[in-house]
Amino acid sequence: MSNIASHLPLMASRTPTIPALKIPRGRSARGDIDYLSLSFAELEGEAAAWQRKLATAGAGRGDRALVMVRPGLPLIASVFALFAMGAIPVVIDPGMGLRSFLSCVRRSRPRVLVGVPFALLISRIARGSFRGVAVRVGSSGRLDARLSKATKGEAASDKDRLVIAPTQESDQAAIFFTSGSTGAPKGVCYEHGMFQAQVRLVRETYGIEPGEVDLPLLPIFALFNPALGMTTIVPEIDPRKPATVDPARIVQAILQEGVTNLFGSPTLWRIVADHCLSKGIELPSLKRVLCAGAPVPASLWADSYRFLPKGAMHSPYGATEALPVSSVSAARIDLSSLKGAHVGTPVPEAEVKIIELDDNPIADIASAKELFRGSIGEIIVKGPMVSRCYDQLPEATAMAKIQGEASPAATLTGAGFWHRMGDTGFLDENGDLWFCGRKAERVETKDGPMFTEPCERVFRQHPRAQRCALIGLGSRGGQRPAIVVETKVKNSQEARNLSNVLRHLALQHPQTAKINLFYFHPK
Fold it and tell me: Tens digit of pLDDT for each residue in 292-312?
């Protein structure tokens, strides 16, 4: 038996009074953030109430349930209730746009909808996308909990405890959609054993201990905290527009609640870092900052030492389909090399290989050509943290998965096959992994491929080319490389001068020596 929801009642029995979740609901007279706080026992009571509500409405084991609720208590309690009953929550990024969102709903074919009133209304209007929905369960937009006996301070009854379905390691647990930032969104099928492996590896890789306090700037990562024994502080952020975050609110939450762990993108952390540096603020409670979603700029690595006096920045590498794959810390990051982005040492239980570039499906690992250390190719990974397939997309699954060696372990989650990350990179002589850009974004010249990250890193050394992109003009196999720089030039003479400077910079490095075409795009 393996069910990811079992961690919540375990924490509720071991540490029933420790806060599990804090939800902001305003400011006190002194200006402090006023939180609604629930202990682990109270959170289990809330999840149990959701479980009864879902079962009464007609949801059951094996049902797909589209979750469209607010981050924080509704998200965690409803999803853990679905996990516990053996249903399959479907989580789609609300920031991808309505058309893409409805396409994902239509493809995932949920039977159950758990949503706020607006979501229930959308399901009635867009009937074609929600055709299979037979059960609708409403979620209040209010912050208040459904006060169970545990919340009222009374002795918990059986009604305040989750009933855990006897699911197996290979049973489907959830469907998480990719963001669509690097292609059409795809539903990634998670299994209970995959969740268990991710919790284990994150705990071991970063030394996370029960009792720590987390402020997840991406709401989906809050789902791991009950299993890790961490208190979740719900951030004051709009998950649909994360770049509009007010850094002062994030910093206030960190300082007030003694946050020890925080996950966010480089873009979000740049905003928070700039605020800290401009105000002379340090964040002494933070043990670790996890920064992922894109390569972390060298300036952010350097600045992290100024606002993290007792902690360190880490950058985990992976994807929705396989996370974590590797990780690197500020103490180990190699920023001197322009050959790619250093993404660190593969985590325990992850096996990483670099294979020759191939844009076609690869049926089995024997058909893939493994490259020597230092050679750039496609990154593939095998391990228990790797998803088995995409939902309803057999062609995409065939493109992304490679059958491994036959063995008795092939029936276990993540074993027996490899996931193609869609990224290029190489392994160095120490076994560390380096990222060289998305495979689809490489430029194919008559002299061979050129990769985005090694080329762009050369030009990012210039202060006016901090944001730039390698592109290819013409047909693949004979493309002409060019660099697009996000900067404003006043006239053609200034453009020629900047082009000459960048051309001189390009000639100093073999990976960019043949680039002599530059475009300038205003911010």
Answer: 988 899 999 999 999 999 999
